[in-house]
Structures are given as structure tokens and as C-alpha cells.
């Protein structure tokens, strides 16, 4: 008969194998990319964004709700412009992003609002003699260049 500790070790190993398979990589706008004239709210509506996910970006500002609605850009030095920047979704809640180029937000609608959900805790089966690392779900979402 297997001991409870052996079962817990087995469970942790299985979670370690399955968790990376849950990772997703999103390209913002899919084939359209990060561009003007695309409905990013429709694109995001059926996606589940969780704490720990990452947003890759290209000329994107992280803003608050008011700045999002009015397309108000923060100072230029706050822009993510390398095309390889990463925004870690560290806390649950509403998040807003917009393009910082010209009138792309105001005229072209180039902005994205998402809701980030907390990562669900795995059920506890039995006390463990060691502290297993909590599984995480990592997703990379890219805002690709449009040129």
C-alpha cells in the first residue's frame, strides 16, 4: 500500500507536467495584430486572463479606466516600445492598454481592456512534509508591430 506522502509526491509531479500544457500564447488581434480598425474588445471577450499571465507589447501604455475611455496617453517615457516588453498580470482586476502612436487610439480604436481573474488554488489533499511550488498558468500575449 502506498503511503500518503508517496501519493502527494506523485500528485505534485503530475501537476508539474500538466501545468505547462495549460500555458497559452495569444497574439493580440490574432492575424490582424496590434493595429487600428480592429475590435479588441470582441477579440478578448472569450479569453480567460489569469494572474501570472503576461502581455507582450509594442508601443503600448498601461493606463487607468479614465485614460482608456478618453485615450489619454501618459508621458512618452512610460510607453512600452521595444516590441519585446512584457507586462505581468500580477493582480486580479480590470486592466487597460492603449496604443501611443499618433491618433491610433482616438481614431483607430487601438486599445484593449481585460479583466484578470485570480489563479484558482489547487485543492489540498493532505499535509505535505515539504512545500510544493504552487502551479501557475503562464500565457504570453503579444501586441505585434503593424509595420
Automatic annotation (TrEMBL):
Keyword set, alphabetical order: Copper, Disulfide bond, Electron transport, Glycoprotein, Membrane, Metal-binding, Signal, Transmembrane, Transmembrane helix, Transport
Membrane topology: Single-pass type I membrane protein
CDD domains, A to Z: Phytocyanin
InterPro entries: Cupredoxin, Phytocyanin-like, Phytocyanin_dom
Signal peptide positions (record): 1-23
Keyword Metal-binding: yes
Entry-linked Gene3D superfamilies: Cupredoxins - blue copper proteins
A single BP term in Gene Ontology: response to symbiotic fungus
Source organism (scientific name): Turnera subulata
Pfam family, one: Cu_bind_like
Name under which the protein is recorded: Phytocyanin domain-containing protein
SUPFAM superfamilies referenced in this protein's UniProt entry, alphabetically: Cupredoxins (SSF49503)
PROSITE patterns the UniProt entry points to: PHYTOCYANIN
Subcellular location: Membrane
GO cellular component: plasma membrane
Amino acid at each position: 500500500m502506498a503511503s500518503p506522502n508517496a501519493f502527494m509526491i506523485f500528485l505534485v509531479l503530475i501537476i508539474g507536467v500538466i501545468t505547462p500544457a495549460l500555458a497559452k500564447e495569444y497574439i493580440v488581434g490574432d492575424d490582424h495584430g496590434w493595429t487600428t480598425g480592429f475590435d479588441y474588445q470582441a477579440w478578448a471577450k472569450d479569453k480567460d486572463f489569469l494572474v501570472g499571465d503576461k502581455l507582450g507589447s509594442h508601443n503600448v501604455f498601461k493606463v487607468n479606466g479614465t485614460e482608456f475611455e478618453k485615450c489619454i496617453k501618459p508621458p512618452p517615457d512610460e510607453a512600452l516600445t521595444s516590441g519585446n516588453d512584457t507586462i505581468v498580470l500580477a493582480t486580479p482586476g480590470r486592466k487597460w492598454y492603449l496604443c501611443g502612436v499618433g491618433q491610433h487610439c482616438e481614431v483607430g480604436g487601438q486599445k484593449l481592456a481585460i479583466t484578470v481573474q485570480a489563479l484558482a488554488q489547487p485543492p489540498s489533499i493532505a499535509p505535505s512534509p515539504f512545500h510544493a511550488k504552487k502551479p501557475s498558468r503562464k500565457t504570453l500575449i503579444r501586441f505585434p508591430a503593424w509595420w
